[in-house]
Specification:
Elements (H helix, E strand, L loop, with lengths): L2 H10 L6 H41 L2 E2 L6 E2 L3 H7 L2 H33 L6 H9 L6 H11 L6 H8 L11 H28 L4 H9 L4 H12 L1 H16 L3 H6 L11 H11 L3 H26 L4
Antiparallel strand pairs: 1-2
Length: 311
C-alpha cells in the first residue's frame, strides 16, 4: 500500500456522526430549514419594505436636501401642525371621503342585490359590465372625464342642455370640482365593490330567505335581517379598504384639476407629492406621509371596532 493510499483510507471509511451529536445536527437542520425557505421572502421584504419605512422615518427628522441635509428633530411635525395648506388638504380629503364612500358602497350593494336576484338572466354578462370600469387605468379615467366634464363642448353639459338645465363649471368651481372627483371615483370603483358583495350574497344559504318568507317577512325585512348581518364581514372589508384608498387619493384630482381651483381638490397625497418632488423638501414630505399613515391606522382601527363582530 502506497503512502497516498494509507493517508486517504481513514477519510474514506470515517463513520457518520452517531448518538447525541448526530441527533443534535439533525434537529438543527430541521429547525433551520423553515428559515432557509423564508429567507428569500424576508430579504425582499426587508430591502423593499422595512428599509424604506425606516429610512422615511429618519428622513422625516431632517431638513434640506442633498449635501445640505441636516438634523431637524421634530421640527417637521411641528411645522405640520401649523401648516394651513396641510389642513386644507386634509379637509378636502375628508369631505370627499364622507360623501364618496357611502355613496359608492350603497350603489355597489344595490347593484349586487339586483344582479343576485333570481329574475336576472345572464349574470356573468352583468358582472363583467359593472366590473369593466375597475380595470380602466386611473390616468386614462382622469383624461376621459376631463373631456366629458369640460364646461364648453363637454358631453355632460351637452346632456344637461338637452333637458333644459344650465351648464355646470365642473372643473373650475371649488364646489363642483369636488363633486366631479366624487363622480369619477364612484364610476371607477362601484363595480369592483359590487362584485365583492355579489360573492358574499351567493354564500348566504337560500334556506334563510325561504324561512323568512314563510314567516311573512317582506323584501326590506329580509334585506335588513338576513342580508346585511350576513354581509357584515364583507361590508367591514370594503369600508376599510375604501377609506384607506380615499385617504390616499392622488391620481384623479391630479389629472382632472391639479388640486385646483384654489386648492379646492388638493388632497393629502397631492400635497405630499408637491413637497417631495416639486419643492424637494423630502423631510417634510416624509412627515406628511407618517401623519397620513397614523390617520389611516386610527380610522381603520375605529371602523373595525365599530363594525367588527363583538365577541
Amino acid at each position: 500500500m502506497t503512502t497516498a493510499t494509507r493517508l486517504a483510507a481513514p477519510a474514506a471509511t470515517a463513520p457518520a456522526p452517531t448518538g447525541s451529536a448526530g441527533r443534535r445536527a439533525a434537529r438543527l437542520r430541521r429547525r433551520a430549514l423553515p428559515y432557509l425557505l423564508l429567507a428569500p421572502a424576508l430579504i425582499l421584504f426587508g430591502f423593499f419594505k422595512a428599509y424604506p419605512v425606516v429610512s422615511s422615518l429618519l428622513l422625516s427628522l431632517t431638513t434640506g436636501s442633498g449635501a445640505a441635509t441636516r438634523d431637524a428633530g421634530l421640527a417637521n411635525y411641528r411645522r405640520l401642525l401649523d401648516d394651513p395648506l396641510f389642513w386644507t388638504a386634509l379637509r378636502n380629503t375628508a369631505e370627499i371621503l364622507v360623501l364618496q364612500v357611502p355613496l359608492m358602497l350603497g350603489l355597489a350593494l344595490l347593484l349586487a342585490v339586483g344582479i343576485n336576484s333570481a329574475l336576472v338572466r345572464w349574470r356573468a354578462v352583468w358582472r363583467l359590465g359593472v366590473f369593466m370600469p375597475a380595470v380602466t387605468g386611473l390616468v386614462a379615467t382622469g383624461v376621459l372625464f376631463a373631456f366629458l366634464l369640460r364646461t364648453d363642448h363637454g358631453a355632460v353639459n351637452w346632456l344637461l342642455d338637452l333637458v333644459g338645465l344650465p351648464a355646470v363649471d365642473w372643473l373650475g368651481s371649488p364646489f363642483w370640482s369636488r363633486i366631479a372627483i366624487v363622480l369619477v371615483l364612484t364610476w371607477h370603483y362601484t363595480g369592483y365593490n359590487a362584485v365583492i358583495y355579489l360573492a358574499g350574497l351567493q354564500g348566504i344559504p337560500k334556506e334563510l330567505y325561504e324561512a323568512a318568507m314563510v314567516d311573512g317577512a317582506g323584501p326590506l325585512r329580509r334585506f335588513r335581517s338576513i342580508t346585511v348581518p350576513a354581509l357584515r364581514p364583507v361590508l367591514l372589508f370594503t369600508v376599510v379598504l375604501s377609506t384607506i384608498g380615499t385617504l390616499q387619493l392622488f391620481d384623479e384630482p391630479y389629472v382632472l384639476t391639479h388640486g385646483g381651483p384654489d386648492n379646492a381638490t388638493l388632497t393629502v397625497s397631492m400635497y405630499l407629492y408637491q413637497n417631495g418632488f416639486r419643492y424637494f423638501d423630502f423631510g417634510y414630505a416624509s412627515a406628511i406621509a407618517y401623519a397620513l399613515t397614523l390617520l389611516v391606522s386610527v380610522l381603520g382601527a375605529v371602523q373595525m371596532r365599530l363594525m367588527g363582530e363583538r365577541e
